[in-house]
## 1
Amino acid sequence: SQQGEEDPQALSIQEGENATMNCSYKTSINNLQWYRQNSGRGLVHLILIRSNEREKHSGRLRVTLDTSKKSSSLLITASRAADTASYFCATDEWMKRSGSNYKLTFGKGTLLTVNP
Amino acid sequence: DAGVIQSPRHEVTEMGQEVTLRCKPISGHNSLFWYRQTMMRGLELLIYFNNNVPIDDSGMPEDRFSAKMPNASFSTLKIQPSEPRDSAVYFCASSFRAGGHADSYEQYFGPGTRLTVT
């Protein structure tokens, strides 16, 4: 079942502009992660934000989390052509059977195209 | 440092054949995940191992799919018999999870195996 849903599905911008992608989820979470996937490659972890955090920065990335709205956003500032990729949010899901909340559920991603 | 290694990178097979996908996780990682990615369904978790033990296989589509992790440095995902609807990109990912810590950590993905079943 889909937990995280990214919005928009596709985004096209010019180099130097900022890109904002959103993620909404349905159930309570412990952490939320963002991943990037370049065409034909595996996913690469970008950033993890915990449920008790509201904002986190990493280089040109800024992630916010609003647990009351069950939503997160990923902002990429001063975008570059190399940022062209699909971006996924992943939420952990409580696994009662194993007693671990380690299972990640991924959304379908936002395809970001940065035009030079 | 070598990342997660998967083989083969591409596999084309005929319906009914057995397919075996292989994965070598990052040395020192104790959790391993198999995912399947399609345009229609996105990225789905098939099975998750912790310390070589299968923890959750609820994502395995049906009995035609099986996965093993005989040791900490190797895992296989087998499909027998394969069907055209199994065509997808299969990813293996690994992670290190501290013992007794119920928390999620970043996962490191391999390059994937693109499977085509004709």
## 2
Amino acid sequence: DMKVTQMPRYLIKRMGENVLLECGQDMSHETMYWYRQDPGLGLQLIYISYDVDSNSEGDIPKGYRVSRKKREHFSLILDSAKTNQTSVYFCASSPRDNSNSDYTFGSGTRLLVI
Amino acid sequence: KTQVEQSPQSLVVRQGENCVLQCNYSVTPDNHLRWFKQDTGKGLVSLTVLVHENDKTSNGRYSATLDKDAKHSTLHITATLLDDTATYICVVGDRGSALGRLHFGAGTQLIVIP
């Protein structure tokens, strides 16, 4: 069953702590994404990765960084978390040639920064 | 500025009734439009994708239309079930490749009551 797996599902961190969100996919998709979802807003793109070590900023990259050392794994890192980074974070993947607009989303990580 | 607007923001229907969800967008170019279902606390699951001018799709009790001239899409759900309770998200992609960006609506929250 093709899927995107996110870990952990839930996370509580204190302000100033470092946060690591992990995402894996088993479809050999070249492209992976990190989004955040806040109430009343559509998903917002944080970072996009086109392949290993080929990452680009999305629309709201400030306060985040990413790491992609293997095609199947994409990490989102918050150095010194802030309370306004409390959100639900979604990872997604797609093939490079996406003429079928095929996107697969993970189940999300709910992060609470206190 | 929000480029994908969904209406209504929320909707309550009785089980067995039909409902229609609307999506208006200003994304240019508009390569494709996809409707997702998001159960509470879960990820996005694709319902259907529309690509061409005046496309119509059908997936069981879900059917959708796209009018690219008007930049408008509708999602029809017939004979609603309690399990249809979810948020329905309209997403417009501006390209058919990984270089494209997805533009998300904030979603319509549908509640189906007995």
